[in-house]
TetR/AcrR family transcriptional regulator
Amino acid sequence: MTQQQSPAAEQPPVRRGPGRPRHADTEARAYRAVLELFGQKGWSGLSLDGVATHAGIGKSSIYLRWKDKRDLLMDALHDLEEHLVVPEETENLKIRDYLVAHATARAELYLGEHGSALSHLYSAAHANPSEFAEIRQQNISRGILSLHGRIEKAVADGELPKDTSVFHLLDAIEGAVLVHVLFSSPKNNEDLSTGIGEYVRKLVDIQLRGIGATV
């Protein structure tokens, strides 16, 4: 007499589908996706669902981390700014070299893979002031405000004339770099990148001579 098999033994094992894999780099993928989509479609064309699809991430992973597209974009921009390589004040660079280093880093950021997102940022902030108030303060103004103290120190130390207007000097340099990059043809980006160092050095020297500083 054969031994009767249990019902459990008679059933073949159930194989579950692979489902959507979990990614350890969810934040990095989301940051890249939101910047790419923002650069392509602007603020009105951006959505968390779109970011999830573009990044290949489950929507639940996105919604668990960010409540809306503004929060995700702000985190992505903050992460991008964190990777901006600029000189530390402890390096004791002369003000001319300090300004050149900062402006060059800013130009390279505009010319990088997320340059289109940064260019959209300015127009979106102007068109949507309430949504972009915090982003504007923390990201758009950050590059300028971070230099404010260093220029004030240069004035106090006699590197720059006593009547130097900090904001006018920074606006002239930062604004010129932005316009130089944005109004050049995309096909010339490689040439722009190659010559950006020389452009920035000449730009800074012109501005410093204009306020009566020695370069």
